[in-house]
Amino acid sequence: MTNLLKNINTPKDLKKLKKEELPLLATEIRKLIIETVSKTGGHLASSLGVVELTLALHYIFKTPDDKIVWDVGHQSYTHKILTGRKDKFHTLRQYKGISGFPKIDESEYDAFNTGHSGTSISAALGLAKARDTKKENHSVIAVIGDGSTTAGMAFEGFNQAGHLKSDLIVILNDNEMSISANVGAVSGYLSKILTGQLYTKLIDEIDTLLKHIPKIGNRVSRLAHRVEEAIKGILIPGRIFEDLGFNYVGPIDGHNLFHIVSTLEGIKKLKGPVLIHVVTKKGKGYQPAEEKAPSFHGVSSFNIGTGSFLKKKSSKTYTEVFGDSITELAKKDIRIIAITAAMTDGTGLSKFARKFPDRFYDVGIAEQHAVTFAAALALEGLKPVVAVYSTFLQRAYDQVLHDICLMNLPVTFAMDRAGIVGEDGPTHHGMFDLSYMRNLPNLVFMAPKDENELRHMLKTALEFNGPAALRYPRGTGTSVDFDKKINQIEIGKAEVLKEGDELTIIAIGNMVFPSLNAAEILSKKGIDVTVLNARFIKPLDKSLITKLASRTKKIVTVEENVLQGGFGSAVMEMLEEAGIGHVHLKRIGIPDKFVEHGSPDILREKYGLNAEGIAETIRKHFNLVTSQAMHTEVEITTSKTLIAK
Ligand SMILES: Cc1ncc(C[n+]2csc(CCOP(=O)(O)OP(=O)(O)O)c2C)c(N)n1
Predict the structure, then answer these.
(1) Does the CA dihedral 453-560-314-422 come out positive or negative?
(2) Could you give the percent of the chain with pLDDT greater than 70?
(3) How far apart are CA 441 and CA 401, in angstroms?
(4) Is there an atom of ligand 1 within 6 Å of 392 CB?
């Protein structure tokens, strides 16, 4: 069998191939992607869907002079393979390996960093305008999925692009899917274009109707003609894009290489903004991914033969516990409404959606809208819960502030994937929320130490008559046994988990157990410390923290968040306000930098956020024990052992 890919390292090599050879190359690339992602994990289905489109783009355009901006960037694997990263592709998403998203630092072929949805048209338009200003002469192409056009920002881009009339190519990659089936009016519109049924059927009916209107005089005849044009105009494919100022081309079959190549050749020199509507199949070429595209959107390692995932979870994830708990609480309170921005599975809401379809909303990739929509529901007496990844709520900061906190409305934010998320890297780590939420007046903000506490915090948030948020990490928790009943926690009350006189560790959320284990390491060396589960970032347990600060005089805060403006800063500010002097305070958290991609364990070790790291920082900072003594074995504390003690 030929091996075309062997000789392809850059788009220059690709251009040496005959058009007829491209389909075979597509097959080889698919094989490499499937084999690699089955080991590394990653965004499989989206990448498999655009193999031909990517080949055609690099075949026709002159990259990197011509620039391609990949929306979200999760579909860029073929692009990476074709642009000098084939030999590193096995390191995909691994620590120190290549990123799962485009990165300008990684390759000159990556025109813009992406990771969050809906940014490509704005970025591409900026690149196009810069080109015009600098009197350069290259093409700029944005590739955006139909799911990502539900992001309002995409339409902000369309709006200005249509107005400016710069040369810009937008490729709409339409697979009728976001992560799950796409939702909303825009997706309905695109589906109608694809089926074409509405258009042909109605046009036939209109023609018949108009033929029966008696043509009495010129005025009626002219009117009939105008009605015909208007109605046809509404139904012509892509009319919405034409009206926005784009030339619409399509729909074209995104897996027919000859068709895409000739279309791109044809439009290459077109002036002004052009939209090419390309129809693809998510997961194309790998049957399990075609059949179960949502499960194969983002995957962990899997068996290629069976399509089954290899990593069996030992216990429930925080996400699943949240999903179970909201469903349980919603049975008893019909006011509870769940809202997601295109992440039904990711946020654990599938069960709720099945049980309470009338109280569930997937609003599309529209975080800002989700928040303001929730605000209005709350104003009318309902209890909306916005389930959202910490990193994506960054988008809706103003809505949280302006539409919820300012009106003091009882909306709950269930903030998943808080802290280090791992292989998706800097665009996806949820390491800023403690800073960006804790400064909002009226908000109660908490973080559970384990899954059991998450349940109680959800109930606490739902019973609180104002805005409340809880943040919890990606992945499984500590496999703790659950309390029979979901209870409320007293707002602003921290929990002492261990007592000792030397110093006080105040930890928040998923840093509580590593801190307890750090305390165990220290106690083996005769250093007894107090460990406090803060539970609340806002309000802090002022009386307990000030009491402990006065007693031990040494305070260590531990958080999986940037140190700037985070939990430790909150404790520091509180002590200053309370006038507690002579306290030696050390903050442990993420330094003032973006954290790279890699497994959470590696990253936590690197940033000193595991038990050994926390103990070592404390020892060094307070000059407490010898470094050799740090490597003794300790019993690792989990929720279970804590309860048993
Ligand atoms: C602001 C934001 N919200 C949510 C996500 C999570 N997310 C990643 S890809 C995706 C679906 C994108 O669908 P589409 O653009 O159609 O691309 P496809 O995967 O179907 O190729 C979502 C919701 C994100 N990346 N950014």
Answers:
(1) positive
(2) 89
(3) 8
(4) yes
Q: What is the CATH number of the domain that holds 544?
A: 3.40.50.920
Ligand 1 atom nearest to CA at 74: 9
Q: How confident is the model at residue 201 (pLDDT cuts 50, 70, 90)?
A: low
Is residue 52 included in any domain, yes or no?
Answer: yes
333 Cα: distance to centroid of ligand 1 (angstroms): 32
367 labelled catalytic: yes
How far does the centroid of ligand 1 lie from the alpha carbon of residue 148, in Å? 6
* Residue 470: C-alpha distances to residues 26, 132, 418 (Å): 45, 47, 10
At residue 332, does pLDDT exceed 50? yes
* Distant-in-sequence, close-in-space partners of 469: CB < 8 Å, separation ≥ 6: 412, 413, 414, 415, 437, 443, 444, 445, 446, 461
- What is the distance between the alpha carbons of residues 66 and 80, in angstroms, rounded to a whole number? 16
Q: Let me know if residue 483 belongs to a domain.
A: no
- Per-residue pLDDT tens over the stretch 414-472: 999 999 999 999 999 999 999 999 999 999 999 999 999 999 999 999 999 999 999 99
Instruction: Specify whether 515 is located in the same domain as 562.
Output: yes
**Is-above-0.90 flag for pTM?**
yes
Residues 6+ apart with CB under 8 A from 585: 554, 555, 556, 557, 568, 571, 572, 575
Q: Which of 85, 131, 282, 438 is catalytic?
A: 282
Place of tokens 């990448």: 47
611 lies in which domain range?
495-644
On whether residue 300 sits in a domain, the answer given is no
CA 74 to centroid of ligand 1, rounded, Å: 8
Instruction: Tell me which of 367, 423, 451, 502 is the catalytic residue.
Output: 367
pLDDT: which is higher, 582 or 544: 544
Distance CA 366, CA 124 (A): 20
Confirm whether 282 is a catalytic residue. Answer: yes
Q: How many alpha carbons lie under 13 Å from residue 486 in its C-beta half-sphere? A: 23
Residue 242 has pLDDT above 50, yes or no: yes
Number of domains comprising the chain: 3
Element containing residue 602 per DSSP (H, E): helix 600-606
Atom of ligand 1 nearest to the CA of 342: 23
Least confident of 104-108, 155-159, 187-191: 187-191
Q: Is residue 302 situated within a structural domain?
A: no
> Considering just the CA atoms, what is the radius of gyration of the chain in Å?
28
Q: Are residues 48 and 182 in the same domain?
A: yes
Residues 115 and 424: beta-carbon distance below 8 Å: yes
